[in-house]
Write a structure and sequence with these properties.
There is one protein chain. This protein is of the alpha/beta class. Helix content is 39%, strand content 15%. The chain has one domain: TIM Barrel (Alpha-Beta Barrel). Helix 9 links the parallel strand 11 and strand 12.
Length: 372
């Protein structure tokens, strides 16, 4: 029996049988524009207006983002605080609202530029409530689409049967700490300046949990999916020890996931790199979706991912953008997709997608090969 798109995706997340493996598209704006022009869209820059027809043409189920299953159905609270000051930008992750400086380019955003806590040496220099005091800038009674486009307001999308309404913002605890302090500084603090690291982690986690509590209280009953991301790993392994993760970050995630599950939402965790030494903790904590699955990272090949996590958590991604999609031929792309099909079958537990936002250099033929 053929399933509807939303049902197919939800079955996959719940590790239940599907009629076919669901697939999503994700790519940079420049790549998407190239694809829009390939399909001769009259207004190729209007991603919002073209979104449904675009997905039909490439053959995917949904158009997702780096950490959400439905790119155009992500909602955030209205922000009424001070804006970013040039040369920094008001990034769509809302990092600018809590003092994180961001610089932009045509391809990506660079977060944590000139970190505001970069020059301190002692936790006593951090004012109590320096983040939680910013919560008053957010109006959770007025949740808006992250693209601020009335065509995709909640009122417009709530009755669309295959739409997946998502929330989850400003909850990336490790990344927020690192962006405020500076990545190198913060990693050193975790080992050599625990007093300062603990102060930053405490302030950030209090903010994140209260932010998410208000977010869930205001919109939890309307949403389907809670997405967050925290890049705690690199190409060759985790960025700090499992002991540190268990002590400082896992308790926060357990509480966040517990709160999300009280609202009956799926919880997706987006993390790049080789994250094996943390993944079992997060699966036990209750994540539903392990997002990215960067197969070019150490020990992240599809066979190993299936061996370790098949039947335990749904994966979203698996088609590597770094080496496979850019460098391989369409027939080789199809082999990657077939490998996933052979491993997971129609038992659920996988949503095929590019492992990240596919890059502008990617050929149209290689993108289409995923879905064909």
């Amino acid at each position: 029996m053929e399933l509807k798109i939303k049902e197919r995706i939800f079955n996959a997340i719940k590790l239940e049988p599907v009629d076919k493996i669901p697939m999503t598209y994700r790519g940079t704006d420049l790549l998407t524009l190239k694809l829009m022009k390939h399909f001769n869209f009259e207004n190729p820059n209007d991603f919002t207006g073209n979104r449904k027809e675009f997905i039909k043409k490439i053959g995917a189920d949904k158009w997702s983002t780096a950490s959400r299953l439905s790119k155009f159905a992500v909602y955030v609270p209205t922000y009424n605080g001070p804006g970013a000051k040039p040369p920094y930008i008001e990034d769509d992750q809302y990092f600018y609202t809590i003092g994180i400086n961001t610089m932009g380019s045509d391809i990506s955003a660079f977060y944590g530029v000139d970190p505001i806590l970069g020059n301190i040496n002692d936790g006593k220099e951090i004012k109590e409530g320096f983040l939680t005091s910013k919560l008053d800038y957010f109006d959770f009674t007025k949740m808006i689409n992250r693209y601020k486009d009335e065509r995709i307001s909640y009122d417009k999308l709530r009755n669309e049967p295959d739409e997946i309404i998502s929330i989850g913002n400003l909850t990336s605890i490790f990344m927020i700490c690192a962006f405020l302090r500076g990545m190198e500084n913060f990693l050193i603090d975790l080992v050599a300046n625990r007093q300062l690291a603990e102060k930053i982690i405490n302030e950030v986690s209090q903010f994140c949990l209260e932010y998410s509590r208000r977010e869930l209280e205001a919109f939890g009953e309307k949403a389907d999916y809670y997405g967050t991301w925290d890049d705690v790993a690199g190409q060759n392994g985790i960025m700090f020890s499992p002991t540190i993760f268990k002590k400082y970050f896992l308790p926060y995630y357990k509480k966040l996931i517990e709160n999300v599950k009280k609202n009956n939402l799926f919880f997706g965790w987006h993390v790049c790199g080789s994250v094996h030494e943390f993944m079992s903790f997060m699966i036990d904590a209750g994540i539903d979706v392990f997002d990215v699955v960067q197969t070019s990272a150490k020990d992240m090949d599809l066979e190993n991912i299936y061996k370790l996590y098949g039947g335990k958590v749904c994966i979203h991604g698996g088609i590597d953008v770094q080496k496979v999609l850019i460098n391989k031929k369409p027939e080789e792309i199809k082999k990657e997709v077939n490998k996933i099909k052979e491993l997971w079958g129609n038992r659920g537990g996988v949503i095929i997608a590019p492992s990240h936002m596919a890059l502008p250099e990617t050929s149209v033929e290689n993108i289409l090969a995923i879905y064909k």
